[in-house]
Amino acid sequence: MTDDFAAELGPDRTLLLVDDDEPFVKRLAKAMEKRGFLPETAQSVAEGRAKALARPPAYAVVDLRLEDGNGLEVIEVLHENRPSCRVVVLTGYGAIATAVAAVKIGAIDYLSKPADANDVTKALLARGGALPEPPENPMSADRVRWEHIQRVYEMCDRNVSETARRLSMHRRTLQRILAKRSPK
Fold first, then answer.
1. Domain spans of the chain?
2. Is this model's pTM higher than 0.90 or not?
3. Which residue among 32, 121, 134, 143 is the one 20 to 30 A from 6 at the CA level?
4. Where does the Response regulatory domain lie (predicted)?
C-alpha cells in the first residue's frame, strides 16, 4: 500500500470497478489494490447492479458504455444502497450531457479514457470543491484526433465506409490512419 493514499482511504476501502473491457479492468484492479483499495470487478450493468446491491462499496469506478446498457444504472443503485459511495465515471465516450447526468445522480468526477490509476485514485479521494489540476502530460493534437477516429470507428461497429462517411473523410485515407499505430 502506498503511503500517499493510505491515510486518506479510511477504514472501508471497498471498491467496485465496472467496465466491460476485461484486460483494462483487471489491470486497474491490480493497480488500485497496490494503492490500498479492496477491488471487486464487474463487466456488465447486471453484474454491477447485483454487486452494488449485495455489498455496496465505499468507492466505485463505473464505465458509462457497457455491452448490456448504461453505467448510469449502476450509479443509481450504488447511491440508493449507499449514499456516501464515492463514484467516478470513466469512459471513452465523453460528452457534456452524460457528464452532467452522471454528476446529477451522484458521481463525484468524470474522467475520459485513457486515465491511469493515479488519476482515478486522485478523483476518488478528492475532497471539497477544489478544482482539478490540469493534466501534466496532455494528449497531443494528433493523439486526440486518433482517439476521436477510434471512437467513431467503434460506434460504427468497425465499418470503415460508415466511419469515413460520418467523419467526412475519404475511405482510403481512413484506412491508412487505422493501419498506423496510435500517436503519442
1. 3-125, 141-179
2. no
3. 134
4. 14-128
Q: What is the grid cell recorded at 132?
A: 482539478
Nearest to 40 by CA among 13, 21, 67: 13
Q: What burial class does residue 110 get, using C-beta atoms within 10 Å of its C-beta: 0-12 exposed, 13-18 middle, 19+ buried?
A: buried
Which CATH architecture describes the domain 141-179?
Answer: Orthogonal Bundle (1.10)
Instruction: Look at residue 4 and tell me whether its pLDDT is greater than 60.
Output: no
* 3-125 has CATH 3.40.640.10 classification: no
- Tell me the pLDDT tens digit for each residue of 30-43: 999 998 899 999 99
Angle between helix 96-104 and helix 72-81 axes, rounded to 10 deg: 10
Peptide bond into 56 cis (omega under 30): no
What is the Cβ-side half-sphere exposure of residue 96, based on CA atoms within 13 angstroms?
0
Residue pair 57/85 in contact (Cβ under 8 Å)? The answer is yes
Concatenating the DSSP letter of every residue in 167-178 gives TT--HHHHHHHH
User: For residue 39, what is its C-alpha cell?
Assistant: 477491488
